[in-house]
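Re: your question about Stress protein

S., sorry for the slow reply, the queue was backed up all week. Below is exactly what I fed in.
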Amino acid sequence: MKSVTSNVTVGKVIEEFKAAGLEAEQPSDLPEKEFGNTRKDAKRILVPALGEDSGGRIFEFKNKEDLKQAKKYYDDLGNGNQMLFSHTYAKDNFLLQMNG
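Result:
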């Protein structure tokens, strides 16, 4: 991701993934229970090459503290149970979480 400015959105991140030749298919809204009170926007994406129903989530959070808590949540899930492991990457107020 390039330096994040106010015009970067979750949708634009998905567009950039596709422009780079990456799979980010069937973007769909996430349920409110997935950090709905702390995020600005979020989408689930599918990556067909990883298998059926595999992919991840892209979040834009309202602030860095909420992002840190969400990243810790996903990182801790994987530490507690290898079946729940996922890859996470954070930059500015954006979090990418991909199935592991």
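The longest strand covers residues 39-46. The two ends are 21 Å apart (CA to CA).

Happy to talk it through on Thursday.
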